[in-house]
Amino acid sequence: MAKLVIVSNRLPVTVSVRGGSVEIREAVGGLATAIKSFLAATESGKTLGFDEVVWVGWSGLKAEHETEEVKAKLREMGLLTVPLTGEELQLFYEGFCNSTLWPLFHSFTVYTVFEAKFWESYLQVNHKYAEAVSAVARPGDFVWVHDYHLMLVPGMLREQAPELAVGFFLHIPFPPAEVYQLMPPPWRTALLDGLLGADLVGFHIHEYVNNFLRSVSKFLGYRTEAGMVYAGRRKIRVGAFPISIDFDFFHNSSEVPEVERQIEELRQRLRGLKIVFSIDRLDYTKGVINRIHAWERFLKERPEWRGRATFILVVVPSRTGVPQYEAMKREIEREVGRINGELGEVDWVPIVYISRFIPTPTLLALYNIADVALITPLKDGMNLVAKEYVASRRDCRGVLILSETAGAAHELVQALVVNPNDESGIVNAIERALGMDPEEQCRRIKSMQERIRQHNVVKWGVDFIHALALAYNDNLMSAATPARILDGEAAEEIASAFRNSRKRILILDYDGTLVPHYPYAYQAVPDAELKQMLRDLANIPNTGVAVISGRPRDFLEAWLGDLNIYLVAEHGAFIKEPGGGWTQLFPFDLSWKPAVRKLMEDFTALTPGTYVEEKEVSIAWHYRNAEAEVGEAAANRLVEALSGLLAGTPANILRGVKVVEVRAAGVSKGAAAKLLYEKLAPDFVLIAGDDYTDEEMFKSVPAAFSVKVGRGETAAKFMAPSYRKVRELLRRLIS
Questions:
Q1: Which of 211, 354, 484, 723 has a Cα-to-Cα distance from 118 of 20 to 30 A?
Q2: How far is CA 719 from CA 99, 325, 701, 708, in A?
Q3: Is the distance from CB of 579 to CB of 600 less than 8 angstroms?
Q4: Cα–Cα distance measured from residue 552 to residue 554, given in angstroms and rounded to the nearest whole number
């Protein structure tokens, strides 16, 4: 049976050493709580087929204070510590993680710091984590890496232990490609490559998925399609897995005696007042000041609510000692003091401000008594406080005001959704919330509760692990047999199988496989030797020959139409049987073509040496004759532009060898190859191709002798250095 290895920056415990004794307490962070709830519900992963769970992370103690006693106690709990020095904590954690990645990924570019020493420490610490995982994980184990601190770990594990199933989940937003582009190129490339070492990459919402896929396409040039990144032989699944909460824990909280007692106490103290409530960690992404000013404006513009409503604002200290956060804390305190001084009365304060950690029973009590939860971060990956508040309302009362820039807004659509920078919009939402009819409150709360109940934290974890298993098995099959060089021995093995078979089919790509790549497509006409070879092969009894090409019908008809072979044009859009006419394999919607043609023509005008080739169901932009660096950069930009242009249309983008092509959805060489295989039912199949598009053929007929022409990762069983080796193999089949 397999192990599940959880990897996060921090272990799910807080370790302290006082007077020589070690004290270990459970941590209360969102990530730790979510994973622990998931593990508890799945009997430590046993219901998912895992016989052991190991959690890898930092203990919270500096390396010099991490004694063998501490490590041993943690090991007994299934926790493996990664020692970090004081300098690493400063450069890796406070530096690259919280001064570079955190602000950039939340689109706070003005706060982002790019320091080479931060990056070097990030590399070093990620290596530490990868080595720690490699020491305990075995082939077939599942490794689940968490969050922005460890984005390089999946790629490092792929190199150190390629037999592992690796998943990565990002708990913060992934920024738009235009923001991510601010990262120095070597760093941004390394981070993307690091994530693509995983079999599955998960985000909270589809917006972050799309941002990531655009960055992969723009900066790495990989083909992305239908939530998949095609990186050579490997396919990386990318999906949205909205994290959630333990619904029952919060929904039943009002029946817990300690919580029930605090609910009554708070109601007595706040009798007659409507309660608006928020709780946040001290951070510039949370929009606390914006919220305070909106509440001030509400009280000034709606004076009838003074003395009738109060705002309980809890701000939990974070990163104490960091000047930026200390300044933020002082500003909050100054503004709260000013507003209370200007608007407060002897028996009423506008804002009840709490600047400390509050115990869980107190938080649950506040959830249960608050008439309104005001949750308006400037940017938040998900925001579980919103879900916790909604789930807690067993009385079917309460109104959630939620920022549209929080991931939770994509699920909790019955909330009053606001823009955190729209002060008047927040004021109007507060007024509407405080005056909302109980029936409407209940209708909205019940709908959101049903969503959270069905999509709780256990479903989040189980869905991710199941998706990881599918992604891993898919890549396992692709990587099971690495390609062999098509040398004399391999060629004879294929020829022998050909001679000993009863019925055969040869499925051959054209450009780069049967003929060399030429500067311009029209130059690649078949020579007399090739035509004679194809003719001789087709004349062998019970042998079918098919040329499957991206070329249009008129080219194939003009140069190969006189041969007794199958011709497949435009990557599988049209087929011509020997001696017959052309037929269309799929219905096509080509409404996207004019816009794509215009865009490609614009790129041609900007990039010398490129040209557009238009076919019936596809358009290709060739850049083989452009200066290499210029062509690749332009191709990346074109793919990015096409991704936005074609979103939601029935068209697919293909990144081939020195070509970017858009074709009608559903068309593929793989589908055409499979159709021929099923139609002819041969006991011998040879498939040869050189392009990314030919990988579809290799995968569609696993039983085939498949040959990839040229270098690069491939699903083919054999690799040939050039088209000449393919011709040599074909001559051997004839003799």
A1: 211
A2: 46, 57, 17, 5
A3: no
A4: 6
Residue whose entry in the numeric block shows the structure tokens 């007659």: 272
Q: What is the pTM of this model?
A: 0.78
Task: Of 398, 377, 385, give the one whose Cα is nearest residue 276.
Answer: 398
Q: Is 509 a catalytic residue?
A: yes
The structure tokens listed for 167 are 């998943």
End-to-end CA distance of the chain: 51
pLDDT of residue 480: 53
d(CA 310, CA 272) in angstroms, rounded, equals 10
Share of residues in the chain with pLDDT > 90 (%): 77
Q: Which of 246, 283, 380, 509 is catalytic?
A: 509
Tokens representing residue 387 in the block? 């879900």
Report CA Rg, the chain: 31
CA–CA separation, 440 and 434 (whole Å): 12
235/233 Cα distance (integer angstroms): 7
pLDDT tens across 584-625, in order?
A: 987 888 999 999 999 999 999 989 999 999 989 999 999 988
Angle value at C-alpha 488, between 486 and 492, nearest 5 degrees: 95
Residues 6+ apart with CB under 8 A from 567: 546, 547, 549, 553, 556, 557, 560, 561, 575, 576
In terms of Cα–Cα distance, which of 509, 503, 500, 494 is closest to 718? 494
- DSSP for 192-211, written as a single string: HHHHTTSSEEEESSHHHHHH
pLDDT of residue 526: 93
Sole residue written with tokens 């184990």: 141
User: Does residue 50 contact residue 98 with C-beta atoms inside 8 Å?
Assistant: no
